[in-house]
Amino acid sequence: MSKPLYVLGTGLSHNGSAVLLKNGSVCVAIEKERITRKKHHGGNDTDAVQYCLDAEGITLADVDLVVQSANFETPDRERFHGKRLFADFPELPLVTISHHLAHAYSAAGTGDFDECVVMVIDGCGSPYEQCIDVSRGTILPENIADLSLRQRWCEKDSFYHFDGQTLTPLLKDFSPIEGDMQQHLKLPTTKHSIGGFYAVVSHYVFGNMDDVGKLMGLAPYGKAPALQLEAFEFIDGSLQVTDNWKTELNRPAADYAAFRKNFQYYADVALWAQQQVEKAVFRCFKDRLTRFPHKNVAYSGGVALNAVANARLLNEGLLEHFYIEPAAGDNGLALGCAYYGWLEVLRKPRVKHNENTCFGKAYSQQEIEKALQQLPGKWNMQILSPEALVQTTAQFLAAGKTIGWFQDHCEFGPRALGHRSILAHPGIKGLGDHINANIKFREDFRPFAPAVLPEFATRYFHSGRKSPYMILVDQTKPEYVEPLQNVTHVNGSARVQTVDHTWNNRFSELIRAFGKETGIYVLLNTSFNKKGMPIVETPEEALALFAESALDVLVLNHIIVRKV
C-alpha cells in the first residue's frame, strides 16, 4: 500500500487553526482556541498542528507539504510568537498564501460545485504587497501600487472564478487601514470594509470585539433604526464607508450596566447597523454578479457568518445556488491553505467533500471514564446501547431536562452542530431564559437555534431551505411561534439548522426520537460553553461545565451522567 499524501494547512491570524488533508480529504482539523481555552486565540500554531498530528497518529516527517496564511505578516518557519514545530524540519516544503486566497480556497475546496464564483468579504485581509493573486483581474483602486507605497492598503472584498482546480481572481478591492476615527470607534481594520464597519459598531455597543455576532442577535430588539444615515456608498465599483454617521455614535457603552440601562438605544443602533450591512452585502454581490454572472456562488470571509444578510441574498432572488463555508471566519484559513496545497501546489485532482464539518479527534470510553473519576459531587452513570441512549435522551428532553450533548469529532467553525451542543425542548416556557442565565451565564437577549430534520423544515419555517451549518435565518410560521418559542427570536426569525443524517446521524436520530415523544421534530441547540469560553473540546471540559452549571444531564458519547 502506498504512503498517504498529507497536506497540512495552518492559519496564524486571530482564530488560529490547523487542518490536515489525507489524499485530498480532511482527516482532522482543530481551532487553536479549543485547545488553549483562550477565545479567538491565534498566533503560534504549535498546539493546533500537534493536535492534528497526534489525532492522525503521524509526525511532521510524514507530511508532504505545509501551506500557511496569516494577516499582516509572513510567518517565519522557525519562530512566530514562539518556536514553531517546522524549525526542526528544514526540508519540509512551506508555502505562504495571502489572506483572501486562503478564504476562497476554503469555500472552493469544501463546496459541492464543479465550477463556481467565490466571494470573500471580511474586515481586513492581507496588505497589497503581500498578495500573491494581484497579477490578474481588476484591482481597485487602479493606482493601488502607488498608494500602497505611502500607506498600508489591505484586501476588503475579493471575487474569484473556480474551474474545479484553480481559483482565478476576477476583481479585488483594497482599502487603507483606518487611522482617523474617534477613539471609541477605532479598530485595527480597513476603513471601507463591511466587516470593519460591523466590528466598529459592535465595539461601540458592547465595548469589545469578543463576539461581533452578538450584534446580529441584538438587532431584532430594535424598534427603529437609531440613525437615518447611509453607512455605505458605491463609487466606481468599490464599496465605501461614508463618514457622516461617525459623529452620531457618541454614546459608547462604558460597561454592561450602561448597556442595560440604555438597552433600547443600543438595540436601535444594532438594528441600523444590521440593515446597513445587509444592504452593503447585497449591493456588493449584485455588482460582482452583474460583471461576472454565474449560477453557482460560494462565499467565505467573516462577513459570511451574518446569517440574516445571507438569507436576504436568497430571499430577494439574487442567487440561484449558494454555498457558505461554515468556518467562514479566520478559523477557516487553514482549510483554504490545505486545499491550496492539494489543488494548486501539488496539482492533484479535487476530491469532493461530503459536507461534514466535524473534524476533531475521537475520545475513547477509557478516556471518558477516567475523566468521570474527577467529577465532584454525587452523580450516577449509565452505559447504554446507541438505540437506548437516543431514546432515553429524547425522554429527558421531552420532560424539560437540559442536556449537555458531547459526541466524537468536534465541529470545525463557530457553530455547534450536534457534537458539542447544549440541547433542550424548544417550547417549554422559560427554558431558554434558564439556559442563558444558569447554564451559559450570558446576556438574556442571546437567541438559540432550532435544529430540525430537513423533511420537517417546511412544516415549521417559511422557506424551509437547506441550512446544515446554522448560517441562514428563516421565519417561524405563525402557528408554530409558541411551540417553538425558545428558538424563535423576538421578530419571528430563527437561525435554522437542518440536520443531515448522512454525516450527523446520532443527532438526527435524537431529533426523530424527540419528535415521536412530543410531536415536534425540532430541538433547541446551542453551543456547549458558557460566556467567554470556547466550545468544550475534551470530556474533562464538558464535565467541568456540567458540574458548574444547572445542566441536568450530560451525554458523553454513549454514557449518560445525571446529578443526584
Chain-wise SSE layout:
Layout: E1 6-11, E2 17-22, E3 25-31, H1 32-36, H2 46-56, E4 65-69, E5 94-96, H3 99-110, E6 116-121, E7 138-140, H4 144-150, E8 153-162, E9 167-176, H5 194-206, H6 214-218, E10 232-235, E11 238-241, H7 256-261, H8 263-291, E12 296-300, H9 307-315, E13 321-324, H10 333-345, H11 365-372, E14 379-383, H12 386-398, E15 403-406, E16 420-424, H13 431-438, E17 449-452, H14 457-460, E18 473-475, E19 493-495, E20 497-498, H15 505-518, E21 522-527, H16 539-548, E22 553-556, E23 559-563
Parallel strand pairs: 1-4, 4-5, 6-12, 7-9, 12-13, 15-22, 17-20
Antiparallel strand pairs: 1-2, 2-3, 6-8, 8-9, 10-11, 14-23, 15-16, 16-21, 17-21, 18-19, 22-23
Helix pairs in contact: 3-10, 5-8, 8-9, 12-15
Task: Please give a structural write-up.
The chain has 564 residues and is of the alpha/beta class. Helix content is 30%, strand content 20%. The chain contains 16 helices and 23 strands. The strands form five sheets. Strands 14-23-22-15-16-21-17-20 form an eight-stranded mixed sheet, with helices on both faces. Helix 5 (194-206) runs antiparallel to helix 8 (263-291) and helix 8 (263-291) crosses helix 9 (307-315). The longest helix has 29 residues, at 263-291. The termini are far apart. The model has no long low-confidence stretch (mean pLDDT 95).
Class from secondary-structure proportions: alpha/beta
Strand content: 15-25%
Shape call: globular
In helices, the fraction of residues equals 25-40%
Q: What is the makeup of the main sheet?
A: 8 strands, mixed
